[in-house]
Amino acid sequence: MKNLSFNKGRPTCLCIFIFAVLLSNHSNATGLTFRTYTKQLQHQITGTVTDVTGPLPSVTVIVKGTTTSAVTDEKGNFSITANSTDVLIFSFLGYATQEIMVGNQTSIIVILAEDSTQLKEVTINAGYYSVNDKERTGSIARITSKDIETQPVNNVLATMQGRMAGVEITQNTGIAGGGFEIQIRGRNSIRSDGNAPLFIIDGVPYSSEAIGFSGTMSVLNTFTSPLNNLNPGDIQSIEVLKDADATSIYGSRGANGVVLVTTKKGKAGQTTVNVNFSSGVAQVAHFMDLLNTKQYLTVRAEAFQNDGITEYPEGAYDINGTWDPNRYTDWQKKLLGNSAQITNLSAGIQGGSEYTQFLLSSNFNHETTVFPGDYGYKKANVRTSISHQSKDKHFHLDFSGGYTVQHNNQPLADPTLEAITTPPNAPEMYDAQGNINWENNTFENNPARNFLGSSQSQTYDLIANIQLSYKVSQDITLKTSLGYTDLKHHEASVYPYTIYLPNYGLGAESSAIYYNDVARRSWIIEPQLNWKNLWGRLQTDLLGGATFQRQDNEQIAMSALGFAHNSLMNNPAAATYLTVSGNDEFIYKYQALFGRLNLQLDNRYIVNLTGRRDGSSRFGPSNRFAWFGAIGAAWIFSSEDWFVKQDVLSLGKLRASYGITGNDQIGNYQYLDSYGTSGNNYQGIPGLQPSRLYNPDFGWETNKKLEFALETGFLQDKIQFTAGWYRNHSSNQLVGVPMPGTTGFPSLQANLDATVENKGIELTLQTTNIQTKDFSWTTDFNFTSVKNKLLSFPGLENSTYSNQYVIGQPLNIIKLFHYTGLDSQSGIYTFEDINGDGSINSPSDKHVLLNLNPKFYGGVQNQFRYKNWQLDFLLQFVKQDNIDPRKIIGVPGEMGNRSTQILDHWSVPGDSGAVQLYTTGVNSDVESAFFNYAASDAVITDASYIRLKNLQLSYNLPAKWIGNTKCRLYLQGQNLLTFTSFKGPDPEFRAVGTLPPLRILTIGTQISF
Amino acid sequence: MKTKFYKNTMIKASLSLIAILPLMGGCDNFTETGLTPTQLDTNAVFENSSTATAALTDVYARIREASLLSGKNSGTGYRLGLYADELTWYGSTAIQTAFYNNSVLPSTAGLDVMWNNTYSQIYATNAVIVGVAASQTLQESDKQQLIGEALFIRALEHFYLNQLWGEVPYITTTDYRINRIASRVSQAEFNQKLIDDLEQAAQLLPDAYIDIDRVRPNSFAARALLARVYLYAQRWAEAANEASAVLNQTELYVWDTDLSQVFLKDNATTILQLKPRNEGLNTDEASSFYFNSTPTVVSLRLDLIAAFETGDLRLSNWTRKVTNNNGTWYHAYKYKERTNTGSSVEYSKILRLAEQYLIRAEARARQGELIGALEDLNVIRNTAGLGNCLAVSQEEVIQAILKERRVELFTEYGHRFMDLKRYNQLDAALETVKPGWDATNRLLPIAESELSLNPNLKPQNPGY
Description:
heterodimer, A: mainly beta, Immunoglobulin-like, 11 helices, 47% strand, disordered N terminus, B: two-stranded antiparallel ribbon, two-stranded antiparallel sheet, 20 helices
């Protein structure tokens, strides 16, 4: 039972061992000589390894000081050759390692005990190197497959939400295939789109730049993200590098942190087959309270009365009698009320010998939508991993490759906005024959029209890499990492003429399709040299390497307009007009030298130096190269001789780091003065247009990071607590400086002499509360508090940013009017007229600041295990303010449904309602007061929440029922419960009209044999 | 033995380093990428006339697709029609509703787009002027043609900006350091800049059209626009002179008495028109205003229909009456072809001869030359099947011209709104029929974003 959850750690365990053996070699010169004397006494030893519950398969048995090793089989049995003076080491992740002297024994029975202290022996992937967690000098957060597998989600970023200190993740849309935003330690760049971390998958940088195009796949509220290509089930661990010590080796791309994704690898031992099937449903968790027909028509009637309009205009179909005043439709339920079906099936086989291990796996995922109609998202992938080492273990090869196919088919537009705004007495969507009902050309915004068109995408993605390493001597290893990625993406938005009112008299000649095709390829070569040595008490580890990377991107967007018949729409060749609306090709080249020197004295004083010299094709010749570097240090004070041996504090470590990283996320060719094709044509001549405002002299954005942290373990590490403080200064800001329209362009690429500070505290606490044979309870807690601040900005007053930013305030602010209440005589909202000019103007009267950054956030994860039962759940919490969506939907009184919040309103002089008088839109004073209100502090609301983000209940069928087969049944849920005072659809709110994150519930079975 | 061990290690380490170093150093030029096929060096664009022409004619395409002169619902023909008293609105699009209700605000989404697109097109014309002037290889005749056209477009775009937003910056350079802090230009100075650009364009451009379609301006197109600019600047004599310069070209511009012919692409009253995006396609105006059984987005206002005198042939030729059980409506029908006609039939008219008659009529009337004024006015009236104008006094003639302009130029790039403004009759004409009308609506507000990015544009237009 325990095996299952710990199985995944076996390669790591192996690594530790190889590592340990390597290290021990230097100091064991005497052991070597001794062994030669006793060689003739070698004999075969057999035995069994168990824990308190039964046999333990896959335990590594190694003859101390040699490379001779064995692995226990499924019954816990092993066989190994050793001599009587040898010591056997039995190790398995999660258990205390035991050493047993062979002596005269030929048969050995070993009982391993679970050991939480051993978790500290975990090896952390730091990208170019691995570190023992205890000896780590940098700040690295980590989740493993254990955390990922409890979650019924199909996006890798979703699996990290709420589980990592310093990592803020927000879901953009509840539509499957949509993206997530990730921000590590706050926003560094003044550019809103320059804050993405660097993603590295098995050593290969993976571009997270959007692959979408405006006008295609518009159903998602942001461009399609390539990160959906990863299958969470394939992931062994995700490490997030945060401070200078960890990120400086990534130089110009490390400023926003680095996300390292490591996929699962095969394990030596018996070949096992693993099948996992789950299925479930996803639903919108919460709808807004909207007006019913009676309330709505009363509001409308009052609005017309207020406007002095006695005869309802022709276009006011909702109230002038054209539409049935007694009809009522709950449009939210109608358009978003379905249950999306989720199906997930994965199967894999793995195994291998001591020298070669393999893993083959495949996964299929299907998720339909909450919308009416036959829509869905499908993802299928296959993955292979092969590891091999030569008999002398000098040569090592690791290959991993994966191929993913995604198909997404969604409505033309997200119906969420129309679910809110469609009048409650609007007619049926469909007539008796099932055709769209235009209600005699009066129902132009029939939400069903978006189901006649569609948004479709297909993505094909290959990621492969090979790592070859050769041990030149015991100390020196040469290594080369080669990686390749190949992504193809096709998306289309389909606009058949049938989505328009018949009244327009349009035919298939007006049908259109907008295409977007993206091809992205990249390769990387990274030769490296590693030299470890021991100089007396000083242990050194030197790494040097180089990077050559190239990424090619091609994107072509086309529109096909005019067909003889709608049935021909999927064939662009049948279009009357085929126009190329965008064609972009770019090459990104990147080159670097990097190095690391790690010094450890007495295993307690550790200094880690990292550096990188980077060159990127994104900069002009004068600014193409730059240096980055960091120093990190750690002191394990609990290992000091003077540290009194006691039982309370088992680990005490202080660490600090300082260094410089950079950011080059500005797009390509921005330093060139050039023209590009415009996609227009005139007189048959394809147009050329200036690409940008010309500025060749911009350079790197630099980010200086400082961190101090304390890491402690108490009661044999049953309680582990870490506290970190950091301060990042981001300067020489590389900005698309917003330009007024009169310059001809929205922005100019330039370095801005401004500094942004991110300062924060990160706390993590892991406790093993109860640990007995039958019952265990562990808790993981993480907490992050971030303060983002614009420190300096010379000349802000006269700059184009003067109204956007304020020195001393976060970047993520909105300036708002100050609402001073409702004028009880006129019934109109009033605002503070700061400059006293008698009218309310933006920006001069906007002085209230709304900080949209969370004040703090975090998560609490608990795991309970009782015999064969296991319960995991994660509570995520965020403290933040946001805008109340109920108050910004639209002018109360205009056509379109509104929140019930508007009912408490002003109607006659003397009233003191919350909402001003209704208008149909002709009273421009009221209208403009509404828009000022929507941009005032009256709409700020507390959007803090505590959410039962994830829950898993699982049961392992007992071995006495099914023998060697393992079978686990589980129930998983996501976004199950939310505690919040926020009144919109979801406190993780982005914009009115975006489908919120869904509540997911699945059940599944996992079988392995 | 230990020393030897370290020595060996050192040698191996050094050898390995030596093996790797060539890989690492010596190829700093790895990061050179050069241009891809989708990027063309600016200097190269102006080395030959075909790419230089593509840089210029792209601006016409952008005017057609997304400008104040577009025939789509984002153009002035549509939006100023809603804003003044030409169109009735049935739709729900926010920005159109705001125009119709005269409730456009600095924060109205899409307002900035109208401004930004126009200045972006102006940037492109300035880039052509700079690039062509610096070119060592372009022929002198090509240079004159390209710069002349660029100056014409620059003036045309600025003219409309001025009409919508009043005193705004007049942009004549590509230097962002100047343009980002551009200040408003007084009306007098603005007029002079328009006149300078158009005079120079008229000098540089040949009298003959460079193409048979009249889709790029000749010198008379520049003079025709100049006539309008003088008229708006109340420089009557010059307005009359420039209009005459155009009207006198009777070989080039032939008056057509058949109203059904005016908006066809080959009509000889055309001074400048826009070529549709593809051969076979027609104008965007045709579909913008069209409806079949009941109006869904816009129809012509009934007071506009009532403004047509009995027997006015323009009513039957240029509008279409739609009747069903619920009522009767009209839509603009100057352009009739909404679909692909194989070979294009209609082009959008930017400048046409009728306006020149009306300009000269008004310029003459304002100077007291009433006979000449009526003569010009009657050309228009007679073509429409109406009798001569019966106005007698100067004021009557001037007002008769305004009335004539309303029915002649309706839904063409906001003439009605601009005329009422020029005549100082906006309030009188609109207060009664537009519930949301306010005197300060004569100018649109400058978009909030623009004002905050360039404080030199402050103060905001009055009333916002």
